[in-house]
Known about the structure:
29% of the residues lie in helices and 17% in strands. A hairpin with a 4-residue loop joins strand 20 and strand 21 (612-619). It folds into three domains: 41-257, Glycoside hydrolase, family 3, N-terminal domain (TIM Barrel, Alpha-Beta Barrel); 311-540, Glycoside hydrolase family 3 C-terminal domain (Rossmann fold, 3-Layer(aba) Sandwich); 599-677, Immunoglobulin-like, CATH 2.60.40.10. By secondary structure, it is of the alpha/beta class.
Amino acid sequence: MLSNEKLEEIIKELTLDEKLSMIHGAELFKTAGVDRLNIPPLVFSDGPMGVRLEFHPDSWEKVGLSDDYITYLPCNSALAATFNRELAFETGSVLGEEARGRGKDVILGPGVNIKRSPLCGRNFEYFSEDPYLTKELAVEYIKGVQQWDVSACIKHFLVNNQETARLEVDTIVDDEALRQIYMPAFYDAVKRAGVYSLMGSYNKINGRFGSQHTHYLNDILRDEWGFDGLVVSDWGAIHDTREAVRSGLDVEMSVTPDFDEYYLANPLKKLIEKGIIAEELVDKKIKNILVLMNRLNMLDGERKTGTYNTDDHRHKALMVAEESIVLLKNDRNLLPLDKKIKKLLVIGENAEILHALGGGSAELKTLYEISPLMGIKKLLGGNCNVKYAKGYSRDIYRGNLDEKWQETSLDMSSIIRVDNDTEALEKMALLRKELREEALELAKAYENIIFVGGLDHVPGHDSEGEDRKNILLPYEQDILISELLKINPNTIIVLTGGGAVNMQKWINEASAVIWGWYGGMEGGTALAKTLFGDVNPSGRLPETFYHDLSECSAHAIGEYGNTDKVVYKDGIYVGYRYVDKFGVTPQFPFGFGLSYTTFECTQGTLDEANNEFICNITNTGDRDGKTSVLLYMKGKADEPVKVLAGFEKVFIKSKESKQVKISVTDGIIKGREYFAFI
Ligand code: BGC
């Protein structure tokens, strides 16, 4: 590590041109280094579920070699559903080690924006509607990444909760909501995890753009919270040289190859030469860059090497996937299925398609991805005849996937939609009818049927740059599922996606329903193990699953999806905080998740000296299993009814009991009531 004096000396030796070259992109994911002073460039890569594939330095053309396949981890929503801090640490650690192995310095994740509405196109990249769950997992994830001499980059600061007009929408939000809901994950990342870097958002926050916001980046992040790491803009989020240079931003990145014309390149040089901007402002940014490099052992000392695609990484991806699956319904103990079955029908496109290479900047070139169909087949082996029928299709949308979307991502009008193409839509409806009829005909001959559907990463679903239009299942899946349940009421329904869908058309007829997220490269293995009982499900919903949008505060009392200004009238009443307060009964509540066994919890005691809540959990069923114990603090009359204050995941053998200590990481508030929920 170089001393502070040495860093100051380096800054003095740098010319203005050299300094400027360090504070903006010189490639799409890289700044310039200064060879003569042994300053390397800074190399970024997306996150958050793996290290992104390689692009050419100055075009969004993929390099396309075979060396950038990686471990594909479950998405952050899946990670949140595990309610398991250790798995968050392991996820971060895999990512950090692979980033280092691929020669990256900063991995652009985790994304910690609050899931304010199920419509947000990037919800799958985010953890939860709850700030406590988000921050607890983000802190561990960041520690995991950074132990590898790689910087995590927490994003997007601040209130990037919708994709509609994300580049310009003005988010009007009060201080109470910011402090209680939208800031905690960033705050704890700085204070507890010591995160080395942070990305500003595209959107405006109370009138000014997030990535160049003097108040939030200087007054709050740097002065109040004491953040001395690196602030990078989102790609193309800077709009004004003077504002940007005076804000707490250090590095401007963008999506165009006009690197010299970035706001912090030639335009800034001119302002400095004219004496309008003081060079000292640039020095501060250089200092932050050098401090980051020093922390990563880039300037001196032994830097960790990292590696990628190890057995251990794949095993970790599987562990997370296994604990993320949420059992929503299991009437008559229909699940788990018997492994000795001889015949099985699997229906649904999500059983078969691969998700890794989609979703926007979170896209990944995974070494492999086990689909649910492959997971089921490899678990059952050759003695079971597994028949597959597509049942529905998204083909028309798939054709619309734009490989180089990021190149034009700053131009919202560039999004081409097929929704208005009536001819294409009619053709599609016909094809779907054919696929449906074929699947339904087959279903008549099967006792065991698994349907796998849900969402995917096509634009307009779980994808960057666009929000979902509603929370209905796409591609007429509701019709197919309803018909299937009429033919065979024991059909198992599995849905994949980054957030709630409306299941009302068929949920009362279904006996077994599983929610599977995007489970990473081993997602199909984890799902199969759950379906056939090798894994006892232990995932819990990290967000409320609404029947429809009128139950979600952003839509009921707030605003969502406006293109000019969106006012967060819902304040702190987001997710279950709203549902509890306003007496809404959602489809499935926050924290919901069944198991193949049953647990009982005796209400515990508070140990104020150690900030712990201690309770006894008994596994009353006949299978071993894991469960999450959620600890809530009761609110006062003018507060949310309850807020999550702790959680702990435990494994308990059948018929055994365990004492569980739940740490109240923010500290027990005297005089408040706490209660556990399992
Ligand atoms: C996204 C960021 C991402 C960046 C670089 C932007 O479109 O909003 O989350 O890290 O691109 O790919």
